[in-house]
Specification:
The protein is α+β, with helices and mostly antiparallel strands and about 500 residues long. About 15% of the residues lie in helices and about 15% in strands. The protein contains eight helices and twelve strands. The protein has helices at about 15-20, 80-90, 105, 120-125, 180-190, 195-205, 390-405, 460, and strands spanning about 140-145, 175-180, 225-235, 245-250, 260-275, 290-295, 300-305, 370-375, 375-380, 385, 415-420, 435. Strands 1, 2, 3, 4, 5, 6, 11 and 12 form an eight-stranded mixed beta sheet that branches. Strands 7-10 form a two-stranded parallel ribbon. Helix 2 runs parallel beside helix 7 (about 390-405). The chain starts with 14 loop residues before the first helix and ends in a 44-residue tail after the last helix.
Length: about 500
C-alpha cells in the first residue's frame, strides 16, 4: 500500500461478539458454505481462481449494493465472494509440507504455510539481506532507512496511512508482504523489477496488466496473488491462540533510540491478513482485484454504535473514525478498559524533535509513544467502526465451526469482508463509491481511515496505482497509471500512502 520507491497488499462461542454482531433480526435466508473450490464438502488446498456462480453479477441486472433483505441465494451477491475468501484463507494457511487431503494435519498452524513460501518484495526487487546475524534462518523483519535505489523500509511497522499501531503491551505492530509466483513471473518477465525496466516498459507504450485467475471454473489456474499480514509481539502464554512464528527483528540504528541497530528474536502472533487476487470483468464485477480481509477475534471491540454496512451514509456519524467501544468491554490486543478515556482510532503522535518513530532497545518497544490515562500507559485504543455484513457473519460461523471441529488455531480468525469493485446503481440517497462494501477496513491495517468515503475500502484506496517510474508528460510529476490495481504498485491518494514497485540500482 506506500511511497514511490517501496514495494509493490475462544472459538465459536465468541464468534458473534468478535465478528461484529449488531442485534438486527436474523435473516430468513442462511448462506451456504462451499468448503472447497472444487465443489466438495471438505476443507482443502485448492486455491480458487474465481468465485462460484453469482447471478446478480450479470450485466443486464442492476446491482444496488448490500442488503439486509436477502431471502434466497438468487438475491445473494456477496456469499460467493465470501466463500472464495474463506477458500483462499484455508488453502493459503495450509502447512506447506503436510498432506493435501487431511486438514487435521494441514491446518494446525505448526509450520510454514503456503503463503509464507511466496516471495517477499526484496526477493523480487532486490535489497539488503539485513545486518543482524541469523544462524537460525528465522523470518526476518528488516527495518532499514535506505538501500541504494530503494526508499525506506519503515513500512514494516507503519500502516497504509504511514502511521504506526501500538498494542496494549506498548509494542509496535509489524507488517509484511508476499506475492505469488504468477505475479513474480509477470514482474520479472516485463522487467518491472528495475527502474530502468519500468522506464523501457512505459516508454514502449505498455500498460501493467497482471494475470487474472481462470474465470470459467473456481478450481482453475490462479492469477496474481498478494498477501499483506500484520503481526503483534506475543508471549508464550498467548501462542495457543495465534498462528505464530519466531522471527528476527532487524532494525537499523536510524530507527532505534540511541542510534545503534537492534537485533532481537521475538514471538509474533498473526492479527490480520489481506489476501488479494486479480480478477477479470464479470458483469457488474470490475477488474480491480478481489480483496479478502481477516482478523483475529481478540484484536479490538466492535463500537457500541457500529455502522451497518448496508447504510453507506453512516460514515457521517463517525467522523474522524470516532466510534467509542462499549463501556463494559474486555481487554483486547488493541483496546484496554483501563484506557477507556483515551479517544479511539487516533494514531501515535511524533514529537517535533523526532523525524521518525523509534524503537526502544528493550520492550515495550513503543514505550515513548504511549498515552497516559488515569495512571496507565496506553497503546492505541482501537474500535471497529463497521459491523461485519450479516450474511458474512452467518457464513463465518459455518467456516469457523469446521475449523473448530479439527482444533485448528485458524478458528480464532474471522472474515471482516470481501471487497470488490462493482457497478452499483445509485439511488440518489446512499453513498455510492464503486466499492462493495462501500467501507471495509482491517482494524490492524487501516485503523485510521475507517470513515473516509474515498479511501475507506481497499478498492478505492488503490484505484490510483502507479509505477515508480514517472513517464515524461506535460506534468513531469504525474505517474504512469496502471490499468489494474495491486498492492505492489503506488499512486493511491496520499492518505493511503501506497507501496510501489521499487527502483533498485
Amino acid at each position: 500500500m506506500h511511497d514511490s520507491h517501496r514495494y509493490a497488499a475462544f472459538l465459536i462461542g465468541a464468534v458473534l461478539c468478535s465478528a461484529g454482531a449488531a442485534g438486527e433480526p436474523p435473516s430468513k435466508y442462511t448462506p451456504q458454505p462451499v468448503f472447497c473450490a472444487d465443489g466438495s464438502n471438505r476443507l482443502c488446498t485448492v486455491i480458487p481462481s474465481t468465485l462460484g456462480p453469482d447471478p446478480l453479477l450479470k450485466p443486464s441486472l442492476g446491482y444496488k449494493g448490500l442488503s439486509n433483505d436477502v431471502t434466497s441465494a438468487a438475491q445473494d451477491v456477496q456469499t460467493p465472494f465470501d466463500n472464495m475468501s474463506w477458500q483462499m484463507f484455508v488453502a493459503l494457511n495450509w502447512q506447506a509440507d503436510k498432506p493435501k487431503g487431511d486438514p487435521r494435519q494441514g491446518l494446525t498452524g505448526a509450520g510454514k504455510t503456503v503463503w509464507q513460501t511466496y516471495s517477499r518484495p526484496e526477493d523480487v526487487f532486490g535489497g539488503p539481506a539485513g545486518r543482524c546475524a541469523n544462524p537460525k534462518k528465522l523470518p526476518r523483519f528488516n527495518l532499514i532507512a535506505k538501500s541504494g535505489g530503494q526508499g525506506p523500509r519503515d513500512e514494516e511497522f507503519l500502516q497504509a496511512t504511514g502511521q504506526p499501531l501500538i498494542d496494549v503491551n506498548g509494542n509496535w505492530t509489524l507488517f509484511e508482504r508476499r506475492l505469488n509466483d504468477v505475479e513474480k513471473a509477470y514482474i520479472t518477465g516485463k522487467g518491472l523489477n528495475t527502474y530502468n525496466g519500468q522506464k523501457a516498459f512505459a516508454e514502449g507504450g505498455n500498460t501493467v496488466d497482471f494475470p487474472i485467475g481462470q474465470m470459467t471454473t473456481p478450481a482453475g489456474a490462479v492469477g496474481a496473488i498478494e498477501i499483506k499480514a500484520s503481526w503483534r509481539i506475543i508471549g508464550d502464554q498467548d501462542k495457543a491462540r495465534y498462528f505464530n512464528l519466531q522471527a528476527l527483528i532487524d532494525v537499523e540504528g536510524a530507527y532505534v533510540r540511541g542510534g545503534k541497530p537492534l537485533c532481537q528474536e521475538l514471538s509474533l502472533g498473526l492479527v490480520g491478513l489481506h489476501i488479494i487476487q486479480n480478477n477479470g470483468p464479470q458483469g457488474n464485477l470490475l477488474p480491480q482485484f478481489i480483496w479478502a480481509s481477516f482478523e483475529h477475534q481478540d484484536n479490538a471491540p466492535l463500537a457500541r454504535a457500529a455502522c451497518d454496512p448496508t447504510d453507506t451514509n453512516c460514515y457521517k456519524k463517525i467522523a474522524n473514525n470516532l466510534c467509542p467501544a462499549p463501556a463494559d468491554t474486555r481487554t483486547y490486543s488493541f483496546n484496554s478498559p483501563a484506557c477507556a478515556s483515551v479517544t479511539v482510532n487516533v494514531p501515535p503522535s511524533l514529537p517535533k524533535t523526532e523525524k521518525a518513530f523509534l524503537w526502544e532497545r528493550q520492550p515495550p518497544y513503543a514505550k515513548s509513544y504511549m498515552t497516559r490515562a488515569n495512571g496507565n500507559a496506553c497503546g492505541t485504543q482501537v474500535a471497529r467502526c463497521w459491523q461485519v455484513y450479516g450474511l458474512t457473519r452467518q457464513l463465518n460461523e459455518a467456516w469457523r465451526a469446521q475449523l473448530t471441529a479439527i482444533n485448528s488455531v485458524f478458528a480464532n480468525y474471522f472474515l471482516i469482508g470481501t471487497n470488490w469493485g462493482g457497478k452499483v446503481e445509485p439511488d440518489g440517497e446512499e453513498l455510492v463509491n464503486g466499492s462493495v462494501p462501500a467501507f471495509m477496513g482491517n482494524s490492524t491495517m487501516e485503523t485510521y481511515i475507517q470513515a473516509d468515503p474515498q479511501v475507506g475500502n481497499c478498492v478505492n484506496c488503490h484505484a490510483g496505482a502507479t509505477l515508480a517510474y514517472k513517464k515524461a508528460t506535460s506534468d513531469p510529476k504525474k505517474p504512469l497509471p496502471i490499468r489494474l490495481i495491486s498492492a505492489s504498485c503506488s499512486g493511491c491518494p496520499k492518505t493511503c500512502a501506497p507501496t510501489s514497485t521499487p527502483a533498485p540500482s
